[in-house]
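If you are new to this repository, start here. Below is one unmodified record pulled from the training split, so you can see the exact layout before writing a loader.
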Amino acid sequence: MPELPEVETVRRGLQPAMEGATIVRAETRRKDLRFPFQKDFVARLEGQTVIGLGRRAKYLLADLGSGDVLLMHLGMSGSFRVVEGVDSTTPGDFHYPRNEDRAHDHVMFQMSSGAAVVFNDPRRFGYMKVIARKGLDDEPLLKGLGPEPLGNEFDAAMLSRSCWNKKTSLKAALLDQRVVAGLGNIYVCEALFRSHLSPRRLAATLATKKGEPTDHAGRLVEAIHGVLNQAIKAGGSSLRDHRQTSGELGYFQHSFQVYDREGEKCQTPKCKGTVKRFTQNGRSTFWCPTCQK
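And here is the target side for that same chain:
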């Protein structure tokens, strides 16, 4: 499933076609994706100008002139493409052939910018919903989400407070969207490696008995910032389904230091360890037991 860098990459790709433009026509080509479309889904979109296109955790949020917000989630295999006239935007060096079965083109927005924005989702785990902006804080899909890891308020003090007295592992805490929003398995593994912290370490060790941040918390926050910013710059990671709106693959997977590198030599200078994999909370965890403590 796409994580924060992949969703942010898609947001930036959609922005030129959607932001400031009006949805001239909206079309749903089936009754549902992961959830049924609202009965008034199309009616609440057509004729509305997209004032801004934002992101919250792994969700895309299009603010509309009506005061509504179009919430969009990519699911497991969802992708957007932007079509200008009859030609899709030109792919670059990392082009990956898109699914040519147009039966999976489930939603289309014809924009006043001249572009058509098409959502393709073979597995139909994605979803879209129109929500009143004033009710956004009470939306079940968004309620309870933790801070944005790249937001100004996310720092060592905030992370340590969230982990104070937690009896779960550090990796489980970071995957908890109530602790920090948008992180997934790949970037948690990478951030823990960069901060030299074990995924098995207790989350509570990020805070002192008084709840103040330890040095571990500072290192981890710095690593999270670094890995996410680097991944966004690289267009995200393309393992199976993620691709940018232009058709380009992200290429951060070429920069993985531990994820999916089981059996390889640890990349930490002077470390003689080997990357290992184990199952943790039903997910594969990649780490170096020698330098991650």
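Two things worth knowing about this chain: The chain has two domains: 4-138, 156-287. Confidence is low (pLDDT under 50) at residues 86-99, 238-245, 247-251.
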